[in-house]
Amino acid sequence: MSENIVSEGNLYKIVTVADKSFEIRYGYTCEGERARWEPSPIYPDFLAFPEYTADGYPFAVAYQDTCKHYIPKRNVAGENWCNDCKLFDKQEDYIGICRCEERRRNEFTRNIRREEQHI
């Protein structure tokens, strides 16, 4: 019986959300983990490297730190993550879409505001 050995950089899976594919690879979130643990799946850092849907909404990871527009789904104590926000639309695995109009790409936000003024 062969044993699967997990190595840094190995492909964990490919997640497709809103027609965009993201490679999830094994790695470490900090150097201190190297000596103590095996690599684990590392999801995209959408805060450092934003990615957007075709209609301008930003992608987010469920356990990503919240932004200033955070709206809790319920009274939650402790850490606030995107997964606990009403605006987080979980898609596949830990990846979702932030439906916050304030964080939406500018060209889409301007068009929406113009449309609202004509109503």
- The number of E-state strands comes to 6
Count of DSSP helices?
2
Structural class: alpha+beta
Which residues sit in consecutive blocks of at least 5 with pLDDT less than 50? none
Mean pLDDT: 85
List the strand order in the largest sheet. 1-2-3
Q: What's the gyration radius in Å?
A: 17 Å
> How far apart are the first and last residues' alpha carbons, in Å?
67 Å
Specify the biggest β-sheet: 3 strands, antiparallel
What general outline do the C-alpha atoms trace?
globular
Q: Helical amount among residues, as a percent range?
A: 10-25%
* Share of β-strand residues: 25-35%
**What is the H/E order?**
EEHEEEEH
Brief sketch in words of this structure:
By secondary structure, this protein is α+β, with helices and mostly antiparallel strands. The chain is built from 2 helices and 6 strands; from the N terminus they run ββαββββα.
